[in-house]
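User: quick one
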Amino acid sequence: MDIAEYIRLVFSDYTLRTITLGTAILGAVTGMLGSFAVLRKQSLLGDAISHAALPGIAIAFLITGAKDSNILLLGALVSGLIGTFWIRGIISKTHLKSDTALGLILSLFFGFGMLLLTFIQKQPNANQAGLDKYLFGQAATLVESDVWMMTIVTGACLLVLLLFWKEFKILLFDADYTKTLGFNTKFIDILITTFIVLAIVLGLQTVGVVLMSAMLLAPAAAARQWTNSLGMMVFLAAIFGALSGVFGTAISATQNNLSTGPVIVIIAGIFVLFSFIFSPSRGLLFKQIRFIKNRRDLQLHKTLAFMFRIAETHENISHPHAIIILNNFQGFTKGTLQQLVRKNYVKLDGNMWSLTEEGFKTATNLYNQQNSNDE
Amino acid sequence: MMSNAQFEIQLIASLVAIACAIPGTFLVLRKMAMISDAISHSILPGIVIGFFITQDLNSPLLILLAALTGILTVVLVEYIQKTGLVKEDTAIGLVFPILFSIGVILIAKNANDVHLDVDAVLLGELAFAPFDRLIISGVDVGPKSLWVIGSILIVTIGLLIAFFKELKISTFDAGLAASLGFSPAIIHYGLMTISSITTVGAFDAVGAILVVALMIAPAATAYLLTNDLKRMLLYAIGFGVFSAISGYWLAHGLDASIAGSITTMLGLVFLLVYLFAPNKGVIAVLYREKQQRTEVSLLTFLLHLKNHSEESERHVNHLNEHINWQKVRSKTVLDLALKNNMIQFDKNIVSLTEKGQLFTTQAIDYIITNEDGKIEHMKDDFFLFRG
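Assistant: Done. Structure below.
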């Protein structure tokens, strides 16, 4: 299938359109809220919450017996919130550290959820088929009402973000200062945490419990590399998330036997990898290039300093010397010598070199600079 | 009467619990609990590739390959963290879902050749473990997973005894360990290797999530009860084995997943200890915080009396409005002060006694100097009215 045909299909085919829209909106909202999770150093909270939501789904099913995804998600939301606040309780009231608290709640809630799910499966009259889609996610089961639900939550989330933008931002970077300004930090904190839980719960149906944390983190981690501004980061993360959703859906739809969740996560991972390497200010590639350039500069200075020490001993600084005597010195190559010539610090004449006036001056300053740095 | 298979299931579960509790204790103490979660997910591609090669879920080669993937996870997380581009927790949260996704896709793309279920890897099924027997030259010597987890446990215990001192020092003071000549890096990667191997060895019996639960929950529960490393290890093993056996019977009663039931038992044990642990439990902490609040209130009240000689400031009714306390609280504080002979009443006018005068003078010293030496002997005075 070529790309043009696929794009036509996205607009004409109901299922494909629903899934594409759904994953794109999901990617956008998790990307937005994920930025806050990443900056608040709560990256693994998403993992814990998504696992903690499982018993809620099972209990909601046990109580209502309905498979209506909104009711199940409500159960997930409640249980996710209980998990989140228990994690906070453990961290603030005992000496157990946050990693232990996260791991505890994650595994204990998930295990309890599994107990309930297997219990439901053994019930004679229960039509439980479809509950385990929440484990690994099945984007194919998305229907239009799910997409509407996501759109509404995303809208609400955007509205709250815009309304409380200043408060969120200041709480993020200086919680103590926020408190002294008289903001109700507890309220803001609970508000943002609730929205993070909400976004995670929304994603369970599409990408599943296990992979949800990557949906939250990857777009935000990628966006972080390109900007230092919170607004820009949230915006970029939303774009990256949405693109991961669209591309992921496209790839899994055109291949056999590929579930959407893992593909979306891998696409998001590729965004992260690309950003890690190619971001201009923080990326590894440019960092390495700057590193090599600095090393070259240092070597150049070393060569110049060495020449200066030889030239110093002569009355005429431009007295020519044989290139050979530089051989003892490691920093010397034909390239660096040429570069010195290009900078007009050194003159070459056959096998001989001599310092120029300018080169001598620079070298003197170099020396002084080093001295003054030492002091 | 217990059948042979039932006994074997409980034996395997208990061995897994012990094998997990030992590295788990150190992971919790080293604040690396979430690494075990990451490892348990990211070994999936290792298991899949190993399965392509060996076609046997219990083959040593598969365990080795999967353990290597586990170590790869740790190395990747540390590499990403070292670049400074993201924080450690973000690095963990990025690495394992991506590796897990690769594993899921590998399975999906080779669905015809691989009889491997992602559910089975994540959740495990202990009930089937006794049916996969190890047969050596025609003799049935027991379930395969019993032998796998048994060998891992023996190696773990051997290493624990051999390197206990090194592990202890490097866990609590990495700097001291390094200066004594133990390489913290070797201990770190050794622990990571053991954790990976244990996770892999246990996953097909109990599943990846239960491995995480068995590593973290017993150790965290034990940590709430003791600060002694040896005792913590013993308690953790005890909680693990107890949950394993009681969890089995819970599953038996409910006809539900054994792994899920064991985790639920672990959760219940943790909840009980979390609430009722003598010094570090939530109830003990809340009670202590309440006492401290009362003590601070009492001190504020006494200092207020010392500062004001005028009668209007010392009238009982004034206290409610001025210090902004509720009636109940004022009464508690007044009673406490009376009981300790700090104050006396004279027609609803409160004043300090001799003892109260002396005490407040000391308290002001305490607040002003704020030196540890001066505080030491004061502490007894402060906590006088606790008993």
